[in-house]
Amino acid sequence: MNKKSLTVTAFALFSLFFGAGNLVLPPLLGFKSGDLWWLVALGFCISGALVPILGIIAHAKLQGTLFDFAKKVSPTFSVVYCYLIYAIAIALPSPRTASVTHEMAIQPFWDSPSFLTSLAYFLLVFLFAINRTKVLDALGKILTPGILIILLVMILMAVFTMDFDFAPSGMSQPFSSGILEGYQTFDAIGAVVVGAVIIISINIKEKSATFEEKRRLIGRAGLWAGVGLLLVYGGLILTGALFGGSFDQEITRTALLRGISTKTMGPTANLLLSILVSLACFTTAVGIVTGTSDFIKGRFNNSILAYRITAFIGCLLGILIGQFNVGYIIDVAVPSLMFIYPITIILILLNVVPDKWSSLRVFKSVVWTTVLFTVPDFLGSIGMSETILPYVDWIPLSQHQMGWVLPALVVFVACNLGKKSKKRPPDIRETQSLFN
């Protein structure tokens, strides 16, 4: 594998991860975190960058599909997990791209209703999804570098022109807030979904490469893509914190990003950023709808009709949900993410660790423990916190909405220690023979 293959693969991974949520989430997080921006950035980068990159490393180890991530629990569990992942993807991050497009590129310049934007937007998505074209791939190679250059200029302008005088933080739990906000990037989910796409692409381009060569390529590319994400996330959070006193505290995510870009680079660059972000959102939406439709098509014996019906339903959901503002869609996404994200993180980690530590028994025990202890966090996210508090207050980290972490870790350790203790002790004759 040459350096060109590594560079192309790393850039492709970064492009697949870097979408609308990655742009609009970090600045507001930094804006609200003030002098504790570094703690928030640490938490955000763990769930928004480190875990997704581990997901790619897991794919490098498996070199399979999304189904392979959870099949050790059981085939039925894996199928249900796949359906949940694709249902969430098509119902939340896909419509959010239309909402971001409206707030970034339409609303500031034209007084048109958001419903009209989402209608036109997903009509185009549907046309592209049922008539596949390489235009989106070509656009992606241009869009991501363009957005990245503008963002780096914006970050550097803020760092070198602003005084490092941060406002006091109003966050009571900055580190866990950063982790939970990182859920909204959907990047861990993206890792288990798009990792398979990378595997297929590499198999096509590097037909003569061995399993180990492809594993090293994907792993190294994942690390480089992760470094890029860490730099951008950290820079955007720091930039938001530097502008802590420059905007109204109730400003929206998209308005803050527009405001920062205007103050640092001027209105022309802001307009260019809006256009690039809108096009990037569009390619993301087409990718989600196409990927989900491909999955359903595969489940129904490669039926073209199943593909088209799924694409239609996905675009219809996009029209209905995409007309709401970005903040509302993010709030609506919280319960589903509180449930599916911990399970996804655990599946990624179990697929990364050596096989001797991830037997079938370990997989089943740890995953089902995570499911059980994720339920209280899910119920709390839908307004039942006070009702369930007396029953879950004893769970460590439950006040941070991460009550699943320690139980999953304890079960993982216990299962592995129990496996070692059950090994047959050496026969006394075998022991004696060692001394003869």
Automatic annotation (TrEMBL):
One of its GO terms (cellular component) is plasma membrane. Keywords: Amino-acid transport, Cell membrane, Membrane, Transmembrane, Transmembrane helix, Transport. The keyword Isomerase does not apply. It is found in: Cell membrane. GO terms for biological process: isoleucine transport; L-leucine transport. Pfam families: Branch_AA_trans (PF05525). InterPro entries: Brnchd-chn_aa_trnsp_Livcs. The chain crosses the membrane at residues 37-60, 72-92, 112-130, 142-162, 182-202, 223-243, 271-293, 305-326, 332-353, 365-382, 402-419. GO terms for molecular function: L-isoleucine transmembrane transporter activity; L-leucine transmembrane transporter activity; L-valine transmembrane transporter activity. It is a multi-pass membrane protein. It comes from the Bacteria. Belongs to the branched chain amino acid transporter family. This is Branched-chain amino acid transport system II carrier protein. The lineage of its organism: Bacteria, Pseudomonadati, Bacteroidota, Flavobacteriia, Flavobacteriales.
